[in-house]
Amino acid sequence: MTKTLVLGIGNLLLTDDGVGIRAIQLLEERYTLPEEVLVVDGGTCGLDLLQFLEGVDHLVIIDAARLGKTPGSIARMEGDQVPAYLALKTSPHEIGLPELLFTARLTDIYPPKVVVLGMQPESIETSLGLTPAVAAHLDELVEMAAIEVGAVKR
Question: Which one, 45, 104, 136, 154, has least CB within 10 Å?
Answer without folding.
Answer: 154
